[in-house]
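Shape matters. As here.
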Amino acid sequence: MQLFNKQKGSGLVEIVVGLAIILTSLFFLIKTYNYYLRFALVHRNDVQVALLLEEGIEAVKLLRDANWTNKIATLTPEAPYSLAFVNSMWTSTTTGYGRYIDGDFDRTFVLSNVYRNSSDSIASSGTLDSGTKKLVVSVSYRTLLGTTTKTMSTYITNLFSN
């Protein structure tokens, strides 16, 4: 009587199928990781610009908090200013000192006068509100296609009446 094992080689088939599943999974993981790296490298500047814009607004708010009369009200409306971190404090400047951040990014800010209409809402004309300024922070950087500029704006007020 002959005994034949009909399952001869089925273990080898299971190993080949298992390896195929593992290799396919690894292939897609590597492709996904490559896509992620490309995406991260392309948008690296966008993340840095967003952080620099937020930091610019916060720095001007620190100037406001320190002394509105000397550090905000004396700035010429519509004139571009840069921020410099000197002696552990932020300061505004019209010179090129500290303008290029990491050698790539140029951050400036502009303060504009704010006017209010008869219902005390912000308007393009009306009564000048000397205790409120419109703040626009801009960050520019060079790309292969030219210069890209991103801006963020808000209003600041003489919060502490100083």
